[in-house]
Write a structure and sequence with these properties.
The chain contains 17 helices and seven strands. The protein is mainly alpha-helical. It folds into two domains: about 70 residues, no CATH class; about 375 residues, no CATH class. Helix 5 runs antiparallel to helix 6, helix 6 runs parallel beside helix 16 and helix 8 runs parallel beside helix 10. The longest helix has about 30 residues.
């Protein structure tokens, strides 16, 4: 095992966080989830498997937050039957069991694409236990711990506000990394970011397409950057639509959109299109049942107008029209016919075959590589795991909500929007069942319980007493 520079820095921040206020580690941890190309530790005994700074800091965060009785009570409450935490816990336990049992039970009975290719080509091999069964299980356990611990932390008003502000800080930090990536590339000083680009995965941080540099920020490749930036853009946009710090959130939304477009990620483009369409439908529905904010009206009117104007301006210029037509063909329309598209289609086809060959039980977490999150879930966890995972996601988006202060309500709505955007993108190209620590951190913000104010309880008790007395009088 080798300890990297960024790992030593993360360890120092983690130790420091144990002796200061809880919010320090919350900010540091959420910020570290952006370091997708960084390796805090490299485990040579497990084939060069890396431990990212976020997973290292998650241990310190768990120790710090669970030291509080209030946080422990909130975390325990989060796993009550029917809650999102309950279904996530069930899914995690079941997925961990499948990672050990299924590759052995169905060993050699089906072919599967390895989660981590051992060479330039990724071939389908007979199903067998691998180190990926262990690592993917550890990642999912980390996701579950992250969710429960942060839900517990958010059980207090101060915790909820801290989570919201830390989430907004992630949007800003992601843009900072994007600017650094672009600037260091132009100036030939990309080596300055090498200490956060030390992962054993293949790094694609200096590629160009259609004449300009693909933005990767602090991630391994442009598609990863586009994937995460989509959620951060949706988060900032939702806050602006709900009137939270409108000048700041509008600026962050526009800058995140520009960064996303410069990632030239097909996944991000498809996800952005579906997200914008869903947002327009939601605003239209809201306008029919209640008054909406001016920002929502502006969004619903300006977005179609801006897109139409842009298309007209492009079409009026032959050079621009040819350029953008070629760009769209490269990134969207002809994507499936490229070698990458063909390979990803074969992953999905084989993953579906894995589901059939295992009679609906799944090949086990970490055994299957796909190119769509839903397919990866059913191929890995089977019918039962797919149902419990779906219940977790559904209870995030459709759970019954209590009345909350406007700022907290807006933060929770924005967190749900970010998770929705990430889920769209993962359904387009997600390879594994792990949606990533940022998804579960934002899901925790979306699911924190808002306690009923004592004044409301007192009013309820007074109402009940008056009804009882009225009954005696009659």
């Amino acid at each position: 095992m080798s300890v990297e520079l960024i790992g030593a820095i993360a360890f120092a921040f983690g130790l420091m966080g144990l002796f200061v206020e809880q919010r320090f580690l919350v900010y540091v941890f959420l910020g570290s989830t952006l370091l997708g190309a960084a390796a805090a530790l490299i485990l040579d005994s497990l084939g060069g498997t890396t431990i990212q700074p976020a997973h290292l800091l998650l241990g310190f965060l768990t120790i710090k937050l669970l030291a509080s009785r209030e946080n422990r009570a909130g975390a325990l409450k989060a796993v009550t039957f029917g809650s999102p935490g309950f279904w996530l816990l069930v899914t995690t336990i079941y997925a961990t069991l499948t990672a050990y049992v299924m590759p052995r039970l169905f060993q050699g009975q089906t072919l599967a694409f390895a989660v981590r290719a051992q060479g330039p080509e990724n071939y389908a091999l007979p199903l067998a236990p691998t180190t990926s069964n262990l690592t993917q299980s550890v990642y999912l356990i980390g996701d579950c711990v992250c969710f429960l611990v942060l839900v517990g932390f958010g059980s207090s008003e101060a915790g909820r506000k801290c989570l919201g502000r830390a989430a907004l800080a992630c949007v800003i930090l992601n843009l900072v990394f994007a600017a650094l990536d672009f600037t260091t590339y132009l100036t030939g000083t990309a080596e300055l970011m090498s200490f956060i680009r030390n992962s054993t995965y293949s790094l694609l941080n200096d590629t160009e397409i259609a004449g300009f540099k693909r933005i990767v920020g602090s991630f391994v490749e442009a598609s990863s950057f586009g994937y995460w930036t989509l959620g951060y853009c949706a988060f900032a946009t939702s806050l602006w639509l709900n009137g939270v710090a409108p000048r700041l959130t509008l600026s962050l939304s526009i800058m995140s959109l520009v960064a996303l477009l410069f990632s030239t990620s097909t996944t991000a483009y498809v996800g952005l299109s579906v997200y914008l369409l869903a947002q327009l439908v939601l605003i239209g529905y809201s306008a029919m049942v209640r008054p909406v904010r001016p920002q929502m009206i502006l969004f619903a009117v300006a977005l179609p107008f801006a897109i139409s104007l842009l298309v007209i301006l492009i079409c009026l210029n032959d050079a621009s029209s040819a350029y953008f037509a070629d760009l769209l063909n490269t990134l969207v329309f002809n994507k499936l016919s490229t070698s990458s598209g063909v390979e990803r289609s074969s992953w999905n086809s084989q993953a579906i075959q894995n589901f059939l060959d295992t009679y609906g039980f799944g090949a086990g977490n970490g055994s299957v590589r796909a190119s769509s999150f839903p397919i990866a879930v059913v191929a890995s966890l089977g019918i039962f795991g797919g149902i419990t995972y779906a219940l977790f996601l559904l209870t995030i988006f459709f759970r019954k909500e209590r009345a909350a202060p406007p700022e907290i309500g807006a933060l929770q709505a924005a967190a749900k929007t970010a998770c929705f955007a990430w889920l769209i993108a993962a359904s387009t190209s997600g390879s594994f069942i792990d949606l990533g620590l940022p998804f579960f951190a934002f899901a925790a913000l979306a699911c924190v319980e808002i306690p009923v104010p004592r004044t409301s309880l007192a009013a309820h008790d007074l109402n009940v007493r008056s009804r009882i007395l009225a009954g005696f009088k009659t």
